[in-house]
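Troubleshooting log. The previous structure file for this entry was overwritten by mistake, so regenerating from the original sequence record. Sequence copied from the archived sheet and checked twice against the printout by T.R.
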Amino acid sequence: MRQGDFVFTSESVSEGHPDKVCDRISDAVVDSFLGLDPYARVACETLVTTNYICIAGEVRLDRRKCGARAPMLKSGEINAKVIEALARNAVRDIGYEQKGFHWKKAKVVIRLHGQSADIAQGVDAAGNKDEGAGDQGIMFGYACNETPELMPAPIQYAHNILKALADVRHDGTEKLLLPDAKSQVTLRYVGGKPKACTAVVVSTQHAAKDAKGRQLESEDIKGIVRPYVQKVLKDVGMPAEEHFYVNPTGRFVIGGPDGDTGLTGRKIIVDTYGGAAPHGGGAFSGKDPTKVDRSAAYAARYLAKNVVAAGLAERCTIQLSYAIGVAHPLSVYVDTQGTGQADEEKISKVLQELMPLTPRGIREHLGLNKAIYARTSAYGHFGRMPEKDGGFSWERTDLVKKLRSAFGAR
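Regenerated output below.
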């Protein structure tokens, strides 16, 4: 994000969006494997459409650690019944019990198989060789002081709107709302700071009729949604009424995978910074933490957030790059976008001293070899609260004191 005056927009999608259904199922598979073997390897992709779920990918597990209902059988084959149950439970938890997509009625096809030996030999430690990166690529992390979560304000507000609607849908407060939804928030920046909301778009799936049998239209849904949007946007205010759009195309009854095919990993900008920062192109969901697409992106966010939290910059972008099978990053780039209180090369050097950026170092420092991923699959991987069981560990700010000390700050 630049300095000056401008408007900027970000979007979010709900847990019931078809792509997010896929992310949730894929991460449920990851959690299942890591819950049995912290060093399991998983690369899982999911496709959903009308009453159909296909789960494909590559996995590896120490079968000696598995019980009778483990996701792999003693023969080394996938236990399809366990994976199918994971998928159905995920869909049920999201709330799909519709004619065109139902947790109990959808056909589930499993196409998981063992991990390639060629990939395994590059990732595994052997002799004097440390664990290598699971793939080549570039990963970005970002933080800014626009919100208490140190996230860009447009994406944080967009997430919060959908999370608020999901909460009242799940607890039964708003029975007419259904799982599929999208939001979009546009903010006006003055001097590089968010000052006012100029437009909001909310498209949410809903029941065809209310309790009295009356057909619902977009104005009815606007009335339901309005108070939750107002509460989320209390610091920047609501836009003018003509720029508050709710289901602008009209009714939104047919939704979810019945209305649109979903795939794992298609919402990478929603998952990160809403377009306010660069993205390396790699998706997160369905991947175990040896895949640097996921773990290094978490590490980059963690470091950038600590830099901003320590007062060393108002905004910070960090890029990491890796080669498959190579442990250490090829580059560590820091950009404080003209807001830094310290030399960027020195920040980079200090960060590498405070945290090892090998795949093993990242996983151990952030405690990533745990079943903590299904919860990340909607409403953003960043800008969340660290949890007691290790979830969202990359949102901790436990490097602040050391960073301030390294730069002589209080």
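The chain has a mean pLDDT of 92. Archived copy saved in two places this time.
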